[in-house]
Specification:
This protein is of the alpha+beta class. 30% of the residues lie in helices and 28% in strands. It has 4 helices and 6 strands. A 6-stranded antiparallel beta sheet has the order 1-2-6-5-4-3, with helices on both faces. It is globular.
Length: 181
């Protein structure tokens, strides 16, 4: 695994406990992002609750969810999709493990990363995800969402936009499964 990929996975592993903790929270000339969905397409943005909580099945479902969400961004706006998926072992009590996927999308220089991330977040909300926390400033956009109100069965996702380099827009999608038995 490349050093950059390992670093991104470390960030994902560090953010997941934060997401779990959030379950108690209340809820330019750039091309306009069109990451909005409705109807049956929206239901594809929800985790399949009948997926057995075994690593292989959860991996498949996690990768499907992220791919479905990323597919709502027009392909002409995505220069590169660097996606990594792995089982993550928790290092804080009480321990355990879950499946995590991080997808870093490098967008074309004329794409508004914050607007794209906002549209992704709105698509998840429209599909039934619950907003747990968000930050929307000139420096960044982050939206933390849960698939349900039950922390034992909920999937968690963080959609973010890196606005630090205007000509190099980046959107990240970080997904975590419920804890695996």
């Amino acid at each position: 695994m490349r050093a950059g990929a390992a670093g991104r996975l470390a960030v994902l592993a560090a953010l997941i406990p934060l997401l779990v903790a959030l379950t108690g929270c209340t809820a330019t000339a750039a091309p306009a992002p069109s990451a909005s969905v409705s109807g049956e397409a929206a239901s594809q943005l929800l985790p399949n609750i009948s997926t057995p909580l075994i690593p292989a099945a959860v991996q498949t479902e996690a990768e499907r969810l992220v791919a479905q969400l990323v597919s709502t961004i027009p392909g002409t706006q995505v220069r590169n999709n660097d996606s990594h998926s792995q089982e993550v072992v928790k290092t804080i009590a009480p321990g355990g493990h879950y499946w995590g996927v991080i997808s870093t999308l490098s967008l074309t220089s004329t794409t508004d990363a914050a607007a794209t991330a906002r549209a992704l977040s709105k698509s998840l909300l429209a599909a039934g995800w619950i907003q747990r926390d968000s930050t929307d400033t000139a420096a960044n956009f982050l939206s933390a969402l849960a698939s349900s109100g039950d922390p034992k069965t909920a999937w968690f996702v963080v959609v973010g936009a890196d606005l630090s380099v205007v000509t190099q827009p980046v959107v990240t999608v970080q997904l975590a499964s419920p804890d695996l038995p």
